[in-house]
Specification:
By secondary structure, the chain is α+β, with helices and mostly antiparallel strands. It is 39% helix and 21% strand. The protein has 9 helices and 13 strands.
Length: 281
């Protein structure tokens, strides 16, 4: 098994950076990152499209399995090498549960994973601006719900849009190769709307309400008695800080501040990056 020697952040940066540099039929791609202090002072919002729609990406890293005794080759599911990325098992696969909830309210929510298996391949693809065609997007809406502590995976093969959700093998034909993003974004142009304060506020409200719904469901599952703050464990203290992030009135702030706070909520609660796509003019 080969593992990519990069971080999810590095892969995500390369993926988003290549999109912003490309010109696809006058499309503009504008990632809204959770830490924008410097950009905020430099007028980063001037680079936003005038009309746009919203996409949400969570970046994963892939393993590359090619030996005959690799699980899904040995079981006959694949007849050759395949890529695999794993879910985070913590708290009954909490991250995936949150992402599934987000996808029910935001259809354009995707796992994004690399289709290469070495640092050298990443560097080559990044420098030659071919990283997109070596990336795979998996729609969360097609993934199964899980509510257990088992290890689950998604697998796929180079050159095929098919992908499988495991532990039980569940096949789909809905993945998107990064090179096809131009057409994918263009087909979504009927969702474009004016990117203004109202739209930004709606994005925050939607992210905030989804985060609150996730927290409510998680509390119900835990069914723990209420305790004073000094007795909270580390996870519950983190949750208290997360709730403070939601205490924000978008009506009292400018558009760029609202977008920044929205990206922070998405990052903290879901591990997602918000990307706004619209025409360049």
């Amino acid at each position: 098994m080969a593992q990519v020697g990069i971080s999810e952040f590095t892969f995500g940066f390369g993926f988003l950076s290549e999109q912003t540099r490309r010109h696809w039929a006058n499309l503009r791609v504008a990632p809204i990152l959770p830490s924008l202090q410097q950009e905020q002072h430099e007028g980063w919002d001037a680079h936003l499209p005038l009309v746009a729609t919203d996409y949400y990406y969570q970046f994963k890293l892939s393993d590359y399995l090619e030996r005959s005794n690799s699980k899904y080759i040995a079981e006959g599911i694949y007849n050759g090498p395949y890529y695999r990325f794993a879910f985070h098992r913590r708290n009954q696969n909490q991250q995936h549960q949150r992402l599934k909830l987000h996808a029910t309210r935001n259809a354009n929510t995707y796992y994004v994973a690399p289709e290469f298996h070495s640092m050298a391949a990443f560097n080559s693809a990044f420098l030659s601006q071919q990283l997109l065609q070596r990336s795979r997007l998996i729609p969360l809406r097609d993934c199964k719900h899980v509510n257990d502590g088992e290890q689950h995976y998604i697998t796929f093969q180079h050159g095929s849009s098919l992908w499988r959700f495991h532990s039980e093998s569940d096949e789909h034909d809905s993945s998107i190769n990064g090179e096809a993003l131009a057409g994918f974004y263009t087909r979504g142009k009927d969702q474009f709307r004016e990117l203004n304060k109202e739209f930004a506020s709606e994005l925050f409200d939607k992210a905030s309400e989804t985060a609150k719904s996730a927290l409510t469901e998680e509390r119900k599952r835990k069914e723990k008695p209420r305790r004073k703050k000094s007795d909270l464990d580390e996870n519950e203290i983190d949750e208290t800080k997360d709730i403070e992030l939601l205490q924000f009135d978008p009506k009292r702030h400018e558009q760029n501040v609202v977008l920044k706070r929205t990206s922070q909520v998405l990052s903290v609660f879901f591990g997602l990056t918000l990307v706004l796509v619209g025409p360049e003019d």
